[in-house]
Amino acid sequence: MLKDASGDSFSRSGFRYNRSGIEPQPGPTAENPIGNPKWPGITSSGGMNWIMYMVSEFNYTLSLAYIFARSGSVVDSEMITPHPSDAPSFVDQIGHFKGSMGDSPDYAAWDGENAVAAIWFGVNDVRVTFTEPNIIDLLEKVVIRLFELTNDLYNLGFRKFIIIEVPPINLVPRLQKHRLGDDYEKLLYSIERWNGFLRENFVLFKESHKDCKSVLLEISDIFWGAYLDPQSVGAPNSNCTDKKGVNCVWYDPLHPGKRIHELLAERAAEAAWS
């Protein structure tokens, strides 16, 4: 099973894809399912993230992950400027996929039966814009754009899709109410509307792509469960951070630790592999 992952720092691994003009990089293998860098890659979890768990602990057959996700990424940088400004968007990541393995080369052969496209955007789209005026209209257009790009992956040959909602990022230490003040309600509303637009457009995508297996993965309860009962994930409280990603809910003030990633991976694997 081949897994193509597009997204942001919640999904990144530091993977360097092969393209002309650079020294060839090792691709995913049974020994290292993410290919490069050395397992478990460069993540924002303290170790393995949900993709690593998915292809190593919750896989039912050999599963290889080609992870094009990068920190700071948004759906389309022509619509929302990412931070950093050069973070490759979903548009760019599809281009990277097409340029390196879109034609199913021998070293990464894939087809609609053995490949899954995992798509997780929105965290940065919401985070960098939620205080702006008329943001809801923009978010609706960005979600529509996300599904246009998902259709591009369909046209390339993908027939299995996992699309993940924006989690309650208002729970992460940097975006909690005492840090944001009056802007906190704007963040809550932006998250709610993004996920509402995501559900609406997912239904339309599924209806128009009946030959696909498409899943919209809801994960908010995983984040809330860890936040409300931190002991359930081995944390002393809901707000501490741990750079090893083990002893706290959060890896840093913006990212979840490994236990949340593990729970997310279990759910994603059930959706993808079943």
UniProtKB/TrEMBL annotation:
This is Cellulose-binding GDSL lipase acylhydrolase. One of its GO terms (molecular function) is hydrolase activity, acting on ester bonds. Keywords: Hydrolase. It holds the Pfam family Lipase_GDSL. Residues 1-38 are annotated as: Disordered.
